[in-house]
Design brief:
294 residues, alpha/beta, Rossmann fold, 8-stranded mixed β-sheet, 16% strand, binds adenosine-5'-diphosphate, binds magnesium ion
Length: 294
């Protein structure tokens, strides 16, 4: 009885937002919520998130990105489109969830958290619950919600990590990035009861380097924090990433065959089906790296 009533309420709410034509029963279904985070800033979170969203979309998933990196609206720059609204506009009764969701390239959807997320603690209880209720319907439009968080162990970031079902922790092989990644695992472990962290090493130069740092970080976490971190994959340092940013066309669309695109697509596949990365840098990439790094 209770189940039916809540189902009905959900349908009515959905109808209000999207109109009756989109109604389908998803009551037994909830999207995967994956937070993409890092210890150090500038390790490639936002680019990774946008391209991962495109890769997942190509695998048939409906993906919604929530930009939670307060104050840094980078997702929009990378996608090459601008959202007129942020999540906070949902507090204005005249603006619907559909209106604040920006339709990006390759069918990906995007909501800007905006600097308003920082003011969440200033909101009244009524406004907070209104916001939450209006955001509920995100689950109707997405199979996977990717949250691009800020870097570090601040309260704002940790709150997102604790809230998500899964975490992708991104780091580069640099010692400073690795130390900061470890700090994230430690801070998260102090609050989490069911840790679910997967590691991605970004900007690797060769596979051995990636394997080595991944193993080191995971073994240290296992030994000192008693947590098993899964290895999700690696993404090569790829000059086309910078080219794509300059063009404001995401890498997977502007350079679908470049090595970093292949790595990210493989990671999307692993997220959905499991499995390991077996991509090797090709000769062209090797030459580019050698010549452009001089
Ligand atoms: N795989 C990669 N290969 C080469 N450069 C990369 C790669 N990933 C990210 N970058 C570079 O790192 C910079 C920072 O990326 P960004 O996604 O904005 O990081 P974050 O969101 O972690 O601050 C980008 O501007 C780009 O130049
Ligand atoms: Mg970012």
């Amino acid at each position: 009885m209770i189940d039916q009533a809540s189902k009905l309420r959900k349908m009515i709410e959905h109808k209000k937002i999207y109109g009756s034509s989109h109604i389908h029963d998803k009551s037994s279904y909830s999207p995967r919520i994956i937070a993409v985070t890092s210890g150090k800033g500038g390790v490639g979170k936002t680019n990774f998130t946008v391209n991962l969203a495109i890769a997942l979309s190509r695998l048939g998933k409906k993906v919604l990105i929530i930009d939670a990196d307060l104050g840094l609206a980078n997702v929009e720059v990378i996608m090459g489109c601008l959202s007129p609204y942020t999540m906070m506009d949902l507090l204005n009764g005249n603006i619907s969830l559909e209106e604040i969701i920006l339709k990006g390239p390759a069918g990906i959807q995007y909501i800007s958290g905006g600097s308003g997320l920082e003011q969440l603690s200033d909101l009244s209880i009524e406004d907070r619950s209104l916001l939450i209720h209006r955001l509920y319907a995100c689950e109707e439009v997405a199979d996977i919600i990717l949250v691009d968080t800020g870097a570090g162990v601040g309260r704002n970031v940790l709150d997102f990590l604790i809230a998500a079902n899964e975490i992708i922790l991104l780091t580069t092989p640099e010692p400073t990035a690795l130390t900061d990644a470890y700090a994230v695992i430690k801070a998260y472990m102090a609050r989490s009861t069911v840790p679910n962290i997967k590691l991605v090493i970004n900007k690797i130069y060769d596979k051995d380097e990636g394997d080595e740092v991944s193993l080191k970080l995971r073994m240290t976490a296992e030994k000192f924090l008693k947590v098993t971190i899964k290895n999700l994959g690696m993404v090569y340092d790829d000059h086309n990433m910078v080219n794509a940013i300059k063009k404001q066309i995401p890498l997977l669309l502007s350079y679908p065959d470049t090595i970093a695109s292949k790595c990210i697509s493989q990671i999307a596949n692993s997220i959905l089906h499991g499995g390991n990365i077996k991509i090797k840098r090709n000769w062209h990439d090797f030459l580019h790296r050698l010549i452009f790094s001089k």
